Amino acid sequence: MSYVVIILVALAVLATMYVVYTAITASPAATGIISIVGPITDGRKQFDSPTQIPKSFNQEQGLTFSYACWVKVNDFSYRYGTPKVIFTKGPIDLSVMCPALFLDSSSNSLIVKIDTFGGTEVIPIGNIPAQKWVHVAIGVSQESVDIYIDGNLYLHHSLSQIPKQNSETVHTSIAGGFDGSIAGLSHYNYLLTPESIAPIMAQAPITAQDTTVLPPYRDQSFWLSHLTGGL
Are 226 and 154 in contact (CB under 8 A)? Predict the structure, then answer.
């Protein structure tokens, strides 16, 4: 076999290895990010994701995972008196959820729910504006939940026990959902931080009607209200 043939074979092998490596490193498992909802989606239309979300297990920081999405609520009176599902990691009967994001039944609050081995813990996020995009990020560890609103830490919530994960897929807008839109819902197999949220927020779901209503648009009272019982 001539040296030319050997070199060509070697180059072909290297090219194949590069293609395989690129495919692996670009996969959700390698990047740690799984996209669930991409473009702007009607909040009233249920979506049952076919994508399996792996449980967090033996991460470098222990049990860690995050979810993030954009939410815009048009009308808080829609389905008044009924908690409205934005998304849940769990079955559509809501028997388990880890985590879930709701719109409150009778106020302009968001509700985060997360199952632990001690029960379901509920975290309210008050005073959400209507007809404006809000970015919500939920970072879960073995001991706590960090809630970020528009890239800022809204609340650090200590859990009573370890989160109780489930093997269900993610569902959005169950049973009519909410009057609004959801976009950019993704799962991360690591804890989100303000630094890692910043580039996510740079990809805001802008439409012709949204050019003047993107964050930030809150005064200091929003960040202090939940600390002083102002929800």
Answer: yes
Residues of the chain with pLDDT under 50: 9, 13-29, 212, 220, 222-223, 228-231
Q: Which amino acid is located at 79 in the chain?
A: R
Tell me how far CA of residue 34 lies from CA of 78, 105, 143, 195, in angstroms.
30, 29, 23, 19
Residues 6+ apart with CB under 8 A from 152: 194, 223
> What is the rounded distance in angstroms from the CA atom of residue 231 to the CA atom of residue 7?
70
Query: Tens of pLDDT along 121-153?
Result: 999 999 999 999 999 999 999 999 999 999 999
pLDDT of residue 202: 87
Domain residues of the chain, as ranges?
1-31, 33-225
Give the closest residue to 182 by CA, choosing from 71, 36, 73, 84.
71
- Side-chain-side CA neighbours of 140 within 13 Å: the count stands at 31
SS3 21: helix
Q: How far apart are CA 16 and CA 194, in angstroms?
A: 38
- Tens of pLDDT, residues 173-195: 999 999 999 999 999 999 999 99
- Tell me the CATH number of domain 33-225, given options 3.40.50.150, 2.60.120.200, 2.70.50.60, 3.30.360.10: 2.60.120.200
Closest to 165 (Cα-Cα) out of 82, 68, 67, 38 = 67
Give the span between the Cα atoms of 208 and 43, in whole angstroms.
19
Q: Supply the DSSP symbol for 176.
A: G
